[in-house]
Amino acid sequence: MIFMFAIEQEYDELDMAIRMFQNTMMRCRYSSIPVVTAPQGLTLGGGCEMNLHADKVCAAAETYIGLVELGVGLIPGGGGTKEFVLRASDELHNDEPETNTLKERFLAIATAKVATSAAEAFDMGILRKGKDEIVMNVNRRISVAKKSVIELFDAGYTMPIKRNDIKVLGRSALGALYAGINGMQRGNYATEHDALVAKKLAYVMCGGDLSEAQQVSEQYLLDLEREAFLSLCGERKTLERIQSVLKTGKLLRN
Predict the structure, then answer these.
(1) Is 203:49 a contact under the CB 8 Å cutoff?
(2) What is the pTM assigned to this prediction?
(3) What pLDDT shows up at residue 99?
(4) For an engineered disulfide with 184, which of 36, 39, 160, 189 has Cβ 3.0 to 4.6 Å away?
């Protein structure tokens, strides 16, 4: 659908589609009832974003989860980029460089890394220790998720408060990430288009071209994310990559 809108340059339709997807993911997060997901197998892109916004994830051990949009020349556009920035902000420690945490989150998206199991998803920060759980018996996934919903409700679940305190690092981190991207391109580890997409991702994850670190809202990051997604939909090489995946199932390095 996105490919058709992009080819026909229906940018208003595309903007509405991405906005609706973002709003759906935010409804998963900000709902009057608990939202629990039960993924299994390939859980990529939008599927991963839904799990990132749930109150709890009851994942099968065989869950291959990750944000893979960079492979087709896009960035995660359904709140995935925003959520990684939010989690990096929550993980900042006073005794280490602030860019370290953000860099790890950036690389997970920029290299389209996929967890090879639910256990690895915890290490990657997609699943949260103490909140999410692994269900070893695939057939019990749904019943465990149902039980979790009832437990959350009985514990007096209330809708979370929307976040306005996400720390973004602005130009200081943006310069460091741009330098790393240029190094990858010069070393022939990334094509020119890979570098372009990675720079758009870095721009969103640093909160844009801010002169200093500051706190922003989730909606601010969602708007940046959507703008970057739409601009990449207008890139010929991105459309070639999407077409290649749709036609042959193979990623194109252009």
Answers:
(1) no
(2) 0.93
(3) 79
(4) 189
